[in-house]
Amino acid sequence: MTTGEIKALDAANVMQTYARFDAAIDHGCGSTLYSPEGKEFIDFTSGIGVNSLGYGNAGWADAVYAQARKLQHISNLYYSEPYAKLAAKLVERTGMADVFFANSGAESNEGAIKLARKYSFDKYGKGRSDIVTLRQSFHGRTVTTLAATGQDVFHNYFFPFTEGFSFAVANDFESVKNACTAGTCAVMFELIQGEGGVLPLDREFVRQVAEFCAEKDMLLIVDEVQTGVGRTGTLFAFQQYGIKPDVVTFAKGIAGGLPFGGFMASEKCRSVLNAGTHATTFGGNPVCAAAAYEVLSQIDDKLLEGVAEKGRYIKGEVMSWGLPCVAGVRGLGLMLGIALKGIVPKDTAQKCVERGLLILTAGSDALRLLPPLVITYEEIDKGLTILKSVLSQA
């Protein structure tokens, strides 16, 4: 099909819930994508942080194929090897105690919220179920995770939202303390607020909150749906912050392009969710678990060092341009936000698409870069050349 035919089919049959960019993608290799007509795009998005190993990765494709030929689904009423091996690898590489597998970031965060509330209920009884999150946060699009999201723009239409959430200011410890009450069971945050603008949390702030949570026996939930699985230069971002969360959620890049997610619990709360208290039909799906195991196998120390180096390289290149519309570059590894002055990020992103670069936006002022972790320097330079050309004409 041509791009025009795909767009017409979409318009006629698909709910128009997405403001799509004017591009159709047919196939890809590495970090380069192609339209049905063969137009080339450098990918600085990896499907919003999902395609961690890029496109056409032979090891990943072989793992998916082999498992699909063997067993595609069996449900969690029975044991199977792929999810068990994957859980063991995650526990080994993170120091967490155990894992629950889900299908998406929102579902993973919902599960973490349930775990925190049950932990408190089991220990203190009713009335201690509130959770504090941060302004500018984003935790998902279900009714509960929208309620947990600290952006007013999402708090509309779908009333009534789930109760029990309050918001504090990022990097303001006193704000977090003041938001917590005798009814608070957990604090939940992203270490880099992705949708909010690629806004990293200060290390000292994170340390203070972690100590405060431990002191008050409130769980610390770290949402690593976007920052996890090598995105920031370590397997999980919390490993750069010197903390041990009670719960860590993940999704996006874990299965390299297949829908998969979950959350890990520390020893303190590994047994909170017992039989019958939480479940999902597709969680731990054998094909997705096999894909995720291959992703983790390829994300070794050398690849993680490369992610950190590439992030520093991109920051240096962008700042070296000296463009008046660039206010700065923030983030870690290959999760970067280019803060803009005087121009609209969405318009800039569309111009990039027209010239062959896929790029994201974040918050009200930033372009967001989430390229595949395996992107080459040649692909980085091609993408940056397009970006510089667009920004130079802003």
Backbone shape: globular
Poorly predicted residue ranges: none
Number of helices: 12
Question: What's the main sheet like?
Answer: 7 strands, mixed
Helix content: 25-40%
Tell me the Rg in angstroms. Answer: 21 Å
Overall pLDDT metric: 98
Order of helices and strands: HEEEHHHEHEHEHEEEHEEEHHEEHEEEH
Query: What share of the residues does DSSP label as strand, in percent?
Result: 15-25%
User: How far from one another are the termini?
Assistant: 34 Å
Structural class: alpha/beta
Number of beta strands = 17
What order do the strands of the largest sheet run in, or round the barrel if closed? Answer: 4-12-11-10-7-5-6
Topology readout:
Layout: H1 3-13, E1 27-29, E2 32-34, E3 40-43, H2 46-49, H3 58-70, H4 81-94, E4 98-102, H5 105-124, E5 130-134, H6 143-148, E6 165-168, H7 173-179, E7 184-189, E8 192-193, E9 199-200, H8 203-216, E10 219-223, E11 247-250, E12 261-265, H9 286-298, H10 301-320, E13 326-332, E14 335-340, H11 345-355, E15 357-358, E16 360-362, E17 366-369, H12 377-392
Task: Describe the protein.
It is built from twelve helices and 17 strands. It has 394 residues and is an alpha/beta fold. It has a seven-stranded mixed sheet with strand order 4-12-11-10-7-5-6, sandwiched between helices. Strands 1-2-3-15 form a four-stranded mixed sheet. A hairpin with a 5-residue loop joins strand 2 (32-34) and strand 3. Helix 4 runs parallel beside helix 9. It starts with a helix and ends with a helix. 47% of the residues are buried. The model has no long low-confidence stretch (mean pLDDT 98).
